[in-house]
Design brief:
Elements (H helix, E strand, L loop, with lengths): L1 E7 L9 E5 L3 E8 L4 H17 L6 H23 L5 E2 L1 E7 L2 E7 L3 E6 L2 E4 L6 H7 L5 H5 L20 E6 L5 E5 L1 H4 L4 H8 L4 H14 L6 E7 L12 H8 L9
Antiparallel strand pairs: 1-11, 2-3, 3-4, 3-5, 5-6, 6-9, 7-8, 7-10, 10-11
The protein binds calcium ion.
């Protein structure tokens, strides 16, 4: 399994409040909110909880995914109390690879996409005010794109004592690509452009050109992109179960900074 990951401050913000985590078979992105460095602390705390909760292959991925969100939520709430930063929180999107099945856990407006044979499919639903308005028919997708309140999210990690992540799973096929990203990519860059740039043969350059596209469009927000490419057919890709899976799950290369 290959991966590439970049987190970029963008061209306007003073700090990068996004965080990501890349493990052997779990990846996550988080987009923090809160002033005075609280957002960055929230997103870092959340992805650190992912490492703790899912650092070893879980026996029951679906339950483990929910538990990871509960632990991340508790950790961010605790940080908020300790640092007296009420209102700090973060989005979080996690992908856990279980053989040929991909488990996704999600809260907020960061996104997971699957790229298969050049076609991009959004796997997660945004938990945001504008997404709700589009769903109810009050707003068109075009209106949502420039809506002044498009940053308002309706679910986040670390805001309430309870958390209800969306948890879903999809079957992956050889050479599928998974893309996790924050809204610093998806707000300024059209889906058609994400599809085209994410299809570039070299995974690292695909990741880099996506970040460059967001910066060319103004770079108004922090931009984080994590891409994973699943192996093609072959003896190792037939492996079933964690032990054998882990033998081909090691990342082939990495780029970027956390
Ligand atoms: Ca953001």
């Amino acid at each position: 399994m290959k991966y590439a990951a970049i987190s970029d401050k963008g061209l306007v913000r003073a700090e990068n409040q996004d965080s990501y985590y890349v493990g052997e078979y779990v990846v996550a992105v988080a987009d923090g909110m809160g002033g005075h460095e609280a957002g960055g602390l929230a997103s870092r705390t959340a992805v650190e909880a992912v490492e703790t909760a899912l650092g070893r292959p879980p026996r029951r991925p679906k339950q483990a995914m929910r538990e990871a969100f509960v632990q991340a939520n508790a950790a961010v709430l605790q940080q908020a109390r300790q640092t007296d930063q009420a209102g700090m929180g973060t989005t979080m999107t996690i992908a856990l690879v279980d053989g040929r099945r991909l488990w996704l856990g999600h809260v907020g407006d960061s996104r997971a996409y699957l790229l298969r044979a050049g076609r991009l499919r959004q796997l997660t639903e945004d938990h945001s005010l504008v997404a709700d308005l589009v769903k109810s028919g009050s707003l068109s997708p075009a209106q949502a794109k420039d809506h002044p309140r498009r940053n308002v999210i309706t679910r986040a990690v670390g805001i309430q004592t309870t958390i209800s992540p969306d948890v879903l799973s999809v079957q992956v096929e050889p050479r599928d690509r998974l893309i996790l990203c924050t809204d610093g990519l998806t707000n300024p860059v059209d889906v058609a452009d994400i599809e085209r740039l994410a299809s570039r043969v070299d995974l690292e350059s695909a990741c880099r050109t996506l970040v460059e596209a967001a910066n060319r469009a103004g770079g108004h927000d922090n931009i984080t992109v994590v891409m994973v490419e699943f192996p093609g057919d072959g003896p190792v890709a037939q492996a079933k179960g964690w032990r054998r899976f882990l033998s081909w799950a090691r990342p082939a290369f990495a780029c970027g900074q956390g």
